[in-house]
Write a structure and sequence with these properties.
single chain, TIM Barrel, 22 helices, alpha/beta
């Protein structure tokens, strides 16, 4: 049927069937995307006029809209990677070994706030937070305990660490070397995305330009010495959790990615195709199933075009966006927490239908406390049921060709390009951050979202509809109070037993490298960690050389 004939038939259907029905039975509410575009009641071939080969193509080929590999999950499932860490390394190691025994296929490390901010556990500022929202790893012996009885040569490890990512990756390298593991085969990721810290998460230490040097020095080093390692996970997840729309999430993420590519290529003189294949990404999955699927397809296509058209990448691997997804922590509710199981299942399904490479499913009790062993097992089972029972992996991109999905994918992409163009006009992502542009935009979106929840315009089960007065009784995880003591005693013992002269010389060399803007600082950090310097000691040197960032008000 040609489009003109279809258009006539569509108008006949609308006048003869739809409008009379709407006159009798009005629609129950306004239907629109979470980023504000009106959604029509029906989508047909009239709503998508793209060229199949240009806009969609085939899986494993540019522009990768339908997936980065030809056979996707029929060949290999995504990595089941439950994010976890708490207390001391002994506590978290036990949790990792439990998860691996239950079918988890990759590790994902959550570090406590002192470790993330370059403070040792016996620091006065650190004491109240040791082991609270992640595991305390202030020195290399703790990293060794964290991976006790776990083969680093066979497991893929993701570490959510940013302002101290070089220190923690150095510890991982030193532990692997001590076990006879060739560092060239180490597989995993450090988050190392400092721009999103300035925008949404606020766990930064150094000023933006020094922070960018720190991050891109790590990328340059791994490109040469750790060929299987992903040196950065450019993260939109935290934008979404802070209140960004799906459009803002991918636009700000891609703008940051462009900045990292520029810096690594221009500052470190590393050719694009030598480091771009190992760049990775991290996105959120909320409960709006189709919008999330379309978002993942759109951002994959956009990245492919950025690398091909803007950076002239020649290696197809440089154009393939590899991304991890975590279900939305912000969507979890303390009210009726069991309902979170349903939410996270839908979110995980969106990630899989959107073509993710690894996935974490939040546990239903995380709005109340760190997850229990029982709840993390259940979260892992969500992934396994989707993988082995649902049938959604049986064919590649099963929703490709849906008139609604293709229209929605195009709409998200079009609006995201406009934000990226605005950031380009401001001078790039670093300058936009300094001006507070993404921070203000996300804050405004968060405010609008909360107004809709408070008014009931956006339904949230248990919060603004179907509420229950009684509180749910459930078992909550409690961190062992002795874990802080173990971490403090260990860091003191490491300081007492190390080679003091070797340690002193390593920090002097680090200071020399940090003061020379042309040098790569990563080897100095690695050398200091080998000399058993702590996270706090390394960070102290860099703080003294580079300063600490104190942001100006953005409103």
């Amino acid at each position: 049927m040609n489009n003109e004939k279809l258009r006539i038939k569509y108008e006949e259907w609308k006048r003869g069937f739809l409008i009379p029905l709407l006159n009798k039975m009005p629609e129950q509410r306004k239907f629109e995307t979470l980023y504000g575009t009106k959604i029509r009641n029906l989508y047909t071939p009239l709503d998508w006029s793209g060229d199949y080969l240009i806009e969609l193509g085939f899986p494993g080929q540019h522009p990768y809209t339908r997936g980065i590999y030809p056979n996707m999950y029929r060949h290999r499932l995504w990595t089941f990677r439950q994010y976890s860490g708490f207390g001391s390394p002994e506590d978290t190691n036990a949790r990792y070994r439990f998860l691996l025994s239950q079918g988890q296929t990759g590790l994902s490390v959550a570090f406590d706030l002192p470790t993330q901010l370059g403070l040792d556990p016996d620091d006065q500022l650190a004491y109240p937070e040791v082991g609270k929202v992640g595991v305390s790893v202030p020195e290399v012996e703790s990293m060794d305990i964290l991976f006790r009885d776990i083969d680093q040569g066979k497991i893929s490890t993701s570490m959510t660490i940013n302002a101290t990512s070089a220190e923690l990756l150095s510890m991982y390298i030193v532990v692997a070397e001590s076990r006879g593991v060739d560092v060239a085969i180490l597989d995993g990721t450090v988050q190392n995305d400092i721009l999103k810290e300035f925008i949404a998460r606020n766990l930064y230490i150094y000023p933006p330009l020094h922070s960018m040097r720190y991050a891109t020095d790590l990328i340059a080093y791994t490109a040469k010495y750790l060929p299987k390692w992903h040196p950065i996970s450019i993260s939109g997840y935290h934008f979404r959790e802070a209140g960004a729309t799906s459009v803002q999430e991918i636009a700000f993420t891609l703008a940051d990615a462009i900045e990292y590519v520029k810096w690594t290529n221009e500052r470190s003189k590393v050719p694009i195709d030598e480091f771009a294949p190992k760049l990775s990404f991290f996105f959120a999955a909320t409960t709006n199933l189709f919008e999330e699927i379309a978002k993942f397809r759109a951002v994959r296509r956009m990245w492919s075009r950025i690398m091909k058209d803007k950076f002239n990448a020649a290696n197809p691997e440089s154009m393939r966006m590899k991304f991890h997804v975590q279900t939305s922590g912000a969507a979890l509710t303390a009210q009726q927490p069991e309902v979170n199981i349903i939410r996270t299942t839908i979110q995980a399904l969106a990630a899989v239908l959107g073509g993710c490479q690894s996935l974490h499913v939040n546990s239903f009790d995380e709005a109340l406390a760190l997850p229990t062993e029982k709840s993390v097992e259940l979260s892992l089972r969500v992934q396994q049921v989707i993988a082995y029972e649902s049938g959604v992996i049986d064919t590649v991109d099963p929703l490709g060709g849906s008139y609604y999905i293709e229209w929605l994918t195009d709409d998200i992409e079009e609006k995201a390009w406009k934000i990226i163009e605005q950031i380009d006009k401001l001078g790039g992502a670093v300058r936009a951050v300094e001006l507070g542009y993404p921070q203000r935009e996300i804050a405004a979106s968060a405010y609008e979202y909360q107004k809709k929840v408070d008014s009931g315009e956006l339904p949230l089960i248990g919060v603004n509809m179907y509420r229950k007065d009684e509180r749910t009784r459930m078992e909550l995880h409690k961190v062992d109070p002795e874990s802080r003591k173990r971490s403090i005693e260990r860091v003191k013992r490491v300081r007492e037993n190390r080679d003091a002269e070797k340690w002193r010389r390593s920090l002097e060399e680090l200071r020399r490298l940090a003061s020379n803007n042309e040098a790569n600082v990563f080897p100095g950090i690695l050398n200091a960690i080998r000399a058993k310097a702590t996270v706090g000691e390394v960070s102290k040197v860099l703080r003294e050389e580079w300063g600490e960032y104190k942001p100006e008000p953005i409103f």
